[in-house]
Amino acid sequence: MSGHKVLGPTAPSPSLVLQHQRQLRSKPQLAGCVGPRTQRKLARSSITPSAAATTSLEWQEIEETVSSNGHYPFKVFPGAKPAISQPNTLPSELASLTTSTKPVVLIRDTNAWCPFCERVWLALEEKQVPYDTVLVSLQNKPEWYMQLVPTKKVPAMSFTDSNNQREVIWESKDILLEMEDRFREVPLLPADPSLRQEALTIMEDLETKHDVGAAGFKFMAGGSMFNRTEPRDPAQLPQFQAEFERELRWMESTLAKHEGGPYFLGSMFSLVDIMFISFMERLVAGLPFFRGYSLKDNPDFPRISEWVRAMNQRDAYRRVKTDDYTYKLLFSRMGSMQPYVPPLQVDEATMEARRTVAARITKNRTEILADIMKNSGLLPFAVASNNTNNNSNSSSSTQGVGPVPTGAELIEAVEFHLRRLCSLLLHGNPGPKAGDAYAKAAGAAALAFFRNRATSPRDMTAPEADEFRSAIDELLKDVY
Predict the structure, then answer these.
(1) Could you tell me if 169 and 213 lie in one domain?
(2) pLDDT tens digits, one per residue of 76-118
(3) Distance CA 303, CA 310 (A)
(4) Residue 428 falls within a domain, yes or no?
(5) How far is it, in rounded angstroms, from Cα 354 to Cα 332?
(6) What is the dihedral of CA 69, 106, 75, 80, to 10 degrees?
(7) Strands 89-90 and 4-9
(8) Among 140, 166, 186, where does a domain finish?
């Protein structure tokens, strides 16, 4: 249900929107911009781009460089990981909605993972409307927000009305339509009445008749995405795939109605595209990883593939989208989903190289383990942890992280990751991850060291070395 509330007065500049749009159009390119101090240093030392990698910049020089590129200062949001947030972020309190001097204040989730928040954020960037942002934790929504928004969901947006008062609106589609009425210089709906109605009908059908996103997430998760107690039956996957592809065919035919461009309305990018991309972005990223199913360059859905490519070329979308790997991590952790592991299909020569590497590691594991512990830098930690535990009457801990591991536990963690490496080489699947952060840290350090320690032809042949390093590179991405 849509709705709005009116807050206290504010006083934004009447020409603020136009000024912001002009600034965006005249913004200099970032490439090649460095601060004056950095320019002088480069001139004095004649550091070429290739040689610059041999020097280490000081933090002050880095700050000068990025500030000269027009970057806004980041503000820390308590509890954020990492501890940064988007520019123009205001404190998470009701007063921020009335003290802001921008035409709108977007209230969204802290991690910028909410697809409905992304819709509104993308529209703001496309329409070049200046805005402030207030972040709300989805796990611990503040009381002021619970009272302000009856649905208690994000996003919400605070607009300045004609009486210089703040009007709050929620529900992503209602916010998008309100923005379209208020900020018309960059339209995201056609002026032609029939085309406009067509766009609104597609948006309505997406929400009421053809929930492409829900069907896609069910197929990707093999059932409910976030209900971990609901059983997932692999036998239902063909049914879920068929239901998803039925909705994809509707999307494909809808895109095909207009020629002259890749978007739903042909050459015009519109709110329809924004409504779709919020969930399609997540499916494009997750389906290959969890189902081995690609929506990029899919011959069964050529218009969808073209649309995905066109979306990824839009500057505004590139500023708000999430990268594919983040989604893989997010769905794995929040949805308890396992990656799709196809049968290991390599030629016999490659497979023989992989088997030989695994055999070398297995036969020499005692020496390899000793070398890693001695020369990677892990041994002092093992000794120190033994001393810490021996000198303590109770289980030691570090800043609430948990018990400090013993030296034997660190060695066990390294050995565990060597076994994961062999499993990946032999079967294409490393198996389960380590259970605690200490074991993961030790494993990552050991693998990174071992990767550059072994050489050919001393330790293995060149083809074996290629497979060895390729496997470690893949495994390092799966440690955490």
Answers:
(1) no
(2) 556 555 545 566 688 899 999 989 999 999 999 988 899 999 9
(3) 10
(4) yes
(5) 27
(6) -120
(7) unpaired
(8) 186
